[in-house]
Design brief:
single chain; five-stranded mixed beta sheet
């Protein structure tokens, strides 16, 4: 092995550790929200099969098997759902896949008509060693969504620490 390969391997290992830590942090937050009665349940790593609807203009090829993926799906006490995407850092280009997944889950899955919100949570917990250098960009994007200057299938971009208050404020 050479030093470049070793550096890449170390970087990939650190990313895997950060992702694993982030998943645990999210599970702890969601478990606390369950205890408070703000959630009915949550599931991690949900793949949704594509449900074809002849009334839509979207004609999926027969090889399309998945509508989308959500790292977490939260069920509210009302029986409605929230799709949760997250990262330890924010870059706009990384959210495009989340947008497409949220769109297809909302429009072509077993959850069609049952999703209240899709959110992107930026891990701002104390253990995050990769704090976003572009949190301002995320907040600018959210301001554009709120002002209806752009359309987004992900309804809210926020730091993880803001999510409990966001959830409490939902009707």
């Amino acid at each position: 092995m050479n030093s470049k390969t070793d550096a890449i391997s170390a970087s990939q290992s650190q990313k895997a550790l950060n992702g694993s830590r982030r998943t645990k942090v999210l599970e702890e937050v969601f478990t606390d929200l369950l205890r408070q009665g703000l959630l009915k349940s949550f599931k991690a790593g949900q793949h949704f099969p594509y449900v074809f609807s002849p009334s839509t203009s979207d004609r999926a090829s027969p090889s399309t098997k998945l509508a989308g993926y959500a790292p977490f799906v939260l069920e509210r006490p009302s029986g409605r759902f929230i799709l949760v995407y997250s990262s330890t850092s924010y870059r706009l280009d990384r959210t495009y896949g989340n947008q497409e997944d949220a769109k297809r889950i909302r429009e072509h899955s077993t959850l069609t008509g049952k999703v209240d919100k899709a959110v992107f949570l930026l891990d701002d917990s104390p253990g995050n060693t990769t704090k976003s250098k572009n949190e301002d960009g995320m907040m600018t994007l959210q301001a554009s969504i709120d002002a209806r200057e752009i359309h987004s299938y992900v309804d809210a971009f926020m730091p993880l620490s803001a999510f409990p208050d966001y959830l409490k404020a939902l009707p």
